[in-house]
Amino acid sequence: MDLVVHVLRRMGGRATTLLPFSLLLGIVFQNAASAFRPLVEPGAIVLLTLALARTDWARVLTLLRRPIPALVLSIAHLLLVPLIVWQVWRTLGLWPGLVAALSLSAMAPGIISATTTAGFLRLDSSLALLLTLFTNFFVPFTLPPLALELLGLDLKISAIDLSLRLAFIVGVSSAGALAIRLWLGAERLRRSSQTLDGLSVIVLMAFTIPLMDGIVARAEADPLKLFGFIAGSFAGMLLCNAVLALAALPFLDLRMALTAGYCSGGRHNALLMAVLPATADPDIFLFIAAVQIPLYVLPALLQPLYRRLLGVAPGD
Fold it and tell me: Which of 51, 120, 152, 235 satisfies CB 3.0 to 4.6 Å to 112 for a cystine?
């Protein structure tokens, strides 16, 4: 048992190396990527469960004393940003599948890791925490009607079914997190944080590998399209970031506005793979694979910009 705990703690400290490696495994071993695909939905549930279990709820309750800014930003994240970027992408004459994927991505909730990376970037990690929680809890009510009714995207699933799938993941994850917290208790949970980090890395690796399913065949059949989707994923993240940051800037201080933009740029796209049927547009799944690259790369690229804007010295 001690060896297992030691290995998990070591893995938790090497997430930035192991997670890109899992993408490479999925690309190299396409049979494994295909075989792991049924793990996407349970993987999404386990990841959200671990994240919610690790959440400092005492801190969240303190932050909720002033919930209005985070609530307004969350609504803008889930509704305003998608409507704006959809208008941008549809006017550029891009591949219809890429337009649909970019628009759908802009409706996804914030990625769970945003709270941690926001701290590294000297952004407001407290605001990032609330935005992540709010958007993940609200998305079952916003994404289906927006995608299927207002924008008319053909996802091969009804709005009710999509809402139920999203609500199932959020509901089961919340119940699982509560069970873990009651079982371990706050103190044991705190002492086990590094072990849970390692467990999260293992689940993330198993979750990430199937995201690469079919990408080699698509690259061989149409390498230009794959390159276009990778470029589009970078552009999509940056546009979502810029839209919410600029919209928030007249009302909030610079650090909060940049944090809102950063959370808007980093979307939980892999959640879409867990809830969409296999019959959905293959271009959406190609985009989910392509967007993993900027998810890992952009925080490092944005760090010097954030430091300059916030007046943070390079060594701080």
Answer: 51
